[in-house]
């Protein structure tokens, strides 16, 4: 039977590309989404994958949602924590709500999904978790203390959980995308984005499928010796 994968924030952008890539790999893929019903309907129609609605920042909703997926589809063996939002503002303009929502969803979502799915992975002695971090969690970014802190937290979370998963067959890795051609990046003011793209050695924005390819590799059977790592896919914008 095909393994079951959940991709959070999976109906649009990078998440959708991940769902498509994992489906092409022969996995049974379900997407989680938070609010955009129309995008979810189109996604299911076009990919054949089911979409489940819950807020990954809500702990109980995550437990319930994953339990429902397990009941209706099968035990979750692969989790891709992709859901994320931006609330960009310089610190003096950023509200507590801007800070809290980004931490709750981007970082809290990883904890909530792991709490829901990691115990089963441990019991079955096999699992894959891939967390989508960001170049801005590695390098920081003007106007993103909330997002950079949450994404940086994801990288720490990944390395800590990887240590717990290693002996029980569960790998935990991160991908740190650079600037990818999605709605999120399209929301960056044009003049700011032009400067950012000028600083990307490859000379263009990345494409969502270029991130999905990395996820597909990290969740594959033969990636079992890779854990606690971060794969940077950023066109050379940040190297270290
Ligand atoms: N470094 C130094 N100064 C900068 C700067 C930078 N990177 N970016 C802006 N500034 C300066 C401006 O030049 C301007 O200076 P002057 O007043 O002297 O002209 C000043 O900062 C503007 O400051 P404000 O607080 O008034 O800023 P604002 O309210 O107009 O907007 C901002 C600031 C919200 C940060 C806006 O610049 C912005 O949206 N920047 C993009 C941030 C970004 O890259 N977000 C990534 C989103 S995509 C993503 O996150 C995906 C991923 O993982 C990569």
- Can you give the helix content as a percent range? 40-55%
Q: How many separate structural domains?
A: 1
Q: State the strand order across the main sheet.
A: 3-2-1-4-5-6-7
SSE topology string: EHEHEHEHEHHEHHHE
Tell me the name of the CATH homologous superfamily.
NAD(P)-binding Rossmann-like Domain
Measured distance between first and last alpha carbons = 40 Å
Helical stretch tally: 9
Sequence-ordered SSE layout with sheet pairings:
Layout: E1 4-7, H1 13-24, E2 28-33, H2 37-47, E3 50-53, H3 59-72, E4 76-81, H4 96-124, E5 127-132, H5 135-139, H6 145-165, E6 170-177, H7 183-186, H8 190-198, H9 208-218, E7 230-233
Parallel strand pairs: 1-2, 1-4, 2-3, 4-5, 5-6, 6-7
Helix pairs in contact: 1-9, 3-4, 4-6
This protein binds acetoacetyl-coenzyme A.
Residues 86, 88-90, 93, 134-136, 141-144, 147, 177, 179, 184-185, 188-189, 192 line the site of acetoacetyl-coenzyme A (CAA).
Key words describing this protein structure:
240 residues, alpha/beta, Rossmann fold, 7-stranded parallel beta sheet, 9 helices, 48% helix, binds acetoacetyl-coenzyme A
């Amino acid at each position: 039977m095909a393994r079951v994968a959940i991709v959070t924030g999976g109906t649009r952008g990078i998440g959708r590309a991940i769902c498509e890539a994992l489906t092409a790999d022969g996995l049974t893929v379900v997407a989680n989404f938070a609010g955009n019903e129309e995008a979810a309907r189109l996604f299911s129609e076009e990919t054949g994958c089911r979409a489940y609605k819950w807020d990954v920042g809500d702990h109980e909703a995550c437990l319930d949602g994953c339990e429902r997926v397990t009941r209706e589809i099968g035990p979750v063996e692969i989790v891709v924590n992709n859901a994320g939002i931006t609330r960009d503002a310089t610190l003096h303009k950023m509200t507590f709500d801007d800070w809290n929502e980004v931490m709750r969803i981007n970082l809290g979502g990883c904890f909530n999904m792991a709490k829901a799915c990691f115990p089963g992975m441990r019991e079955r002695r096999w699992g894959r978790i891939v967390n989508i971090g960001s170049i801005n969690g590695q390098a920081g970014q003007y106007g993103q203390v909330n997002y950079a802190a949450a994404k940086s937290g994801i990288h720490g979370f990944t390395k800590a959980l990887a240590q717990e998963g290693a002996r029980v067959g569960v790998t935990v890795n991160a991908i740190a995308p650079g600037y990818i051609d999605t709605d999120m990046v399209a929301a960056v003011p044009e003049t700011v984005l032009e400067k950012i793209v000028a600083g990307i050695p490859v000379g263009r924005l990345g494409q969502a499928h270029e991130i999905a390819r990395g996820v597909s590799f990290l969740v594959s059977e033969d990636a079992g010796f890779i854990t606690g790592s971060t794969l940077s896919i950023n066109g050379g914008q940040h190297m270290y």
